[in-house]
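User: I'm new to structure prediction. If I give you an amino acid sequence, what do you actually give back? Let's try with this one:
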Amino acid sequence: MIEIRKAEFEDLEEILRLQYLAFETRAIEAGTRDIPPLKQTLDEVKDEFQKGLFLKAVDGNRIIGSVRSREENGTVYIGKLIVHPEYRRNGYGTALLHEMEKCYPGRRFELFTGSDDADNLRLYGRNGYSEFCRREVNPYLTFVYLEKEPEIS
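Assistant: Good question. You get back a string of structure tokens that encode the predicted 3D arrangement of the chain. For your 153 residues, that looks like this:
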């Protein structure tokens, strides 16, 4: 059974390895390894960890997914929602996203993904995120920025 819980400092190396694996597929699709998640170092991940919240999805003792966030000026920035390729298309990405949102009730959420990543765009759209901006990173990569406004009760 897959469990989602807060990641610990000791998990960061395994999460970074999973990040490289998860984004390798994106690099192949984009035709370049020049994408930021494949260049991130362990020290940079440790710095992110100190400034935000990391969640992990675990199957036994194996981390099969992760998502991270940081809050700034009332907006929660969600980043690097990753799921191991063997576990994709089973709802774990959605579960990680929902768990992260539960940690920040009443907040606005913002995230981004590649413009050619139809699976991610579909996932975020199904979960209430809408596009508000696009930015070209390099000739191979354009980011689509999406937001989700707080639910009004």
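You can read the tokens as a compact description of the fold. Here is one thing that stands out. The radius of gyration is 15 Å.
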